[in-house]
Design a protein that fits this description.
Elements: E1 3-8, E2 11-12, H1 19-36, E3 41-49, H2 53-62, H3 66-83, E4 90-93, H4 97-112, E5 116-126, E6 131-133, E7 152-161, H5 167-176, E8 181-182, H6 187-194, E9 200-201, E10 203-205, E11 213-215, E12 218-223, H7 225-230, H8 232-235, H9 246-251, E13 256-260, H10 264-277, E14 286-289, E15 292-294, H11 309-315, H12 322-329, E16 338-340, H13 342-372, E17 375-376, H14 384-402, H15 406-427, H16 429-434, H17 438-459, H18 464-474, E18 493-494
Parallel strand pairs: 1-3, 1-13, 2-3, 3-4, 8-14, 13-14, 15-16
Antiparallel strand pairs: 5-6, 5-7, 7-9, 10-12, 11-12, 17-18
Helix pairs in contact: 2-3, 12-13, 13-15, 13-17, 14-15, 14-17, 15-17, 17-18
Length: 520
């Protein structure tokens, strides 16, 4: 693998970002940062989905234009991702001119080759899902299961995409590529959905929806969400039906689309069929993550438990997003649902980042200063057995990321932290110093500091700011690639002075970290 292309879902700008949006972006950013430590060419795409009836109605209720609403809310998403250190290469907006032009060309091409046709249609339409539903998809009360609202009956003449034409090919692809859908257990859900799949509407009449990309040669129709939104993954790279850009040739097919489990159907069926129709290579993987609940309850405006990510940073007075990134990334096993609560957040990051990892570095450096004036002496040797554990952890973490198991990778790193803490306790360098076994004491401290270099490199995708602070105190080059990451990082000579040692993460209930007691 010489390059890596990863995308998030593009967020609908009918409202502001919440912690569910943040979970997906943090997961994706961590995967991208991990691969940047393995490869030179990594491309990370995110963005916003900005057309449709909900935007049209919301903007009208606010007395502004749809574009003004999109500009306002897209900016909120970009500001939020900046606050969370989401380091994407490109942020696409479906109102971007280049995207609209490419989508029109894609639509026209599919019409010309017979994959899109015009037909009258009558069906049940859910505005929340932006899609037509079959009666079997509804609850016993006739409601959309995702939004618990009754879909409206819509009758209009639309363009349809021949999804049924590609049904067998999609089934074959899923069955022959067991790692295509991650986690693998979701593949059966998709195969069940494919059993009675129908052709799908890919346009709306302007009598019902005006806010969309116009169909070329048919001004009475606008292009519907599936070809518009889903195509962002290729238009952002410069896909053109006639001549593609260098970026498209370099990075497509995508290595992984990171999406919520609620939109897996659209990515594993609709998007795959569209790519087949365009005769383009298919995505290598679809990572369908779970949902984030709040205090074990599903997020809901009516319950008033929708949390804005930036509010968490403000409430806990965090100077950067590392704690939230780590907590969210390890909130749930791959593909499963996770939960956020203030108490658990505080307890977990205090235990892992402050007590276990931060304190391990701080006290080890402090002992090096106390016993050796911050100097690593030439006679100090490292303990091969625990260094092998650190070396193996590098491979374990890489393997987890190969399978997009981000939480599992984070847990493996923290296991190494715990093993290293036990090593310190078992070998008691303070006792060795007291017994004047200074060389043996130096062996222990040097071994621990060597492992801390490895830990800083492994934790960097999760906690980039903490990792930089760790590496700075260790005089360690954090830009090192994993292939060059070894267990001989601490060099002989002066490493650090007392005034250069500081906590890399303060407990959130410490006097220094929690300033609430000082508020008037």
């Amino acid at each position: 693998m010489e390059r890596f292309y990863i995308t998030t879902a593009i967020d609908y700008v009918n409202g502001a970002p919440h912690i569910g949006h943040a979970y997906e972006k943090i997961l994706t950013d961590i995967i991208a940062r991990h691969y940047k430590k393995r490869l030179d060419n990594v491309y990370f795409l995110s963005g916003t989905d900005e057309h449709g009836i909900k935007i049209q109605k919301t903007s009208a209720s606010k007395g502004i234009t749809p574009k003004e609403l999109c500009d306002e809310n897209s900016a909120k998403f970009q500001e939020c991702w900046k606050a969370l250190d989401i380091d994407y290469n490109k942020f696409i907006r479906t109102t971007d001119d280049y995207h609209k032009s490419a989508v029109q060309k894609i639509f026209k091409k599919l019409v010309e080759q017979g994959d899109i046709y015009k037909n009258s249609y009558k069906g049940l339409y859910c505005q929340g899902c932006e899609c037509f539903l079959n009666e079997k998809d509804l609850t016993e009360d006739g409601l959309c299961p995702n939004h618990m609202k009754k879909p409206e009956e819509v009758s209009e003449e639309n363009y349809f995409f021949k999804l049924t034409k590609y049904k067998d090919a999609i089934i074959k692809h899923i069955k022959e590529n067991p790692d295509f859908i991650v986690p693998a257990f979701r593949a059966n859900e998709v195969l069940n959905q494919l059993e009675d799949i129908q052709d799908i509407s890919v346009s709306r009449s302007i009598s019902n929806v005006t806010w969309g990309i116009p169909v070329l040669d048919d001004p009475e129709q606008v292009i519907y969400v599936w070809i518009d939104a889903l195509s962002n993954y290729i238009t952002a790279l410069g896909y053109d039906t006639e001549e593609n850009s260098d970026d498209f040739r370099k990075f497509w097919p995508v290595d992984v689309h990171v999406i919520g489990k609620d939109i897996l159907k659209f990515h594993s069926i609709y998007w795959i069929a569209l790519l087949m129709a365009l005769k383009l290579p298919l995505p290598k993987h679809l990572l369908a993550h779970g949902w984030i609940t709040i205090d074990e309850a599903k997020m809901s405006k009516s319950l008033g438990n929708v949390i804005a990510p930036q509010d968490i940073l403000k409430i806990f007075e965090l100077k950067n997003a590392d704690a939230l990134r780590y907590y969210m990334a390890t909130a749930a096993p791959c593909g499963k649902d996770g939960n956020y609560s203030d108490d658990d957040f505080k307890e977990k990051v205090n235990a892992h980042l402050a007590n276990s990892m931060g304190n391990l570095l701080n006290r080890t450096l402090s002992m090096l200063v106390k016993y050796f004036d911050g100097e690593v002496k030439s006679e100090f040797k490292t303990d091969a057995s625990i260094l092998n554990t650190a070396k193996n952890t590098i491979d374990i973490v890489k393997n987890y990321f190969d399978n997009f198991e981000v939480a599992e990778a984070g847990n493996a790193i923290m296991t190494l932290v715990d093993v290293t803490n036990k090593y310190v306790t078992d070998n008691a360098p303070w006792t060795l110093a007291k017994e004047e076994k200074m060389t043996e004491c130096g062996h222990v401290l040097t071994t621990v500091l060597d492992i801390m270099c490895v830990i800083s490199a492994l934790i960097e995708p999760f906690c980039p700011n903490i990792a930089r602070d760790m590496a700075k105190q260790l005089s360690f080059n954090l830009d090192i690639k994993y292939d060059d990451l070894h267990v001989d990082n601490i060099k002989v000579g002066k490493l650090i002075s007392k005034e250069d040692i500081y906590p890399v993460f303060l407990r959130m209930d410490s006097e220094l970290a929690d300033k609430s007691t000082k508020k008037k």
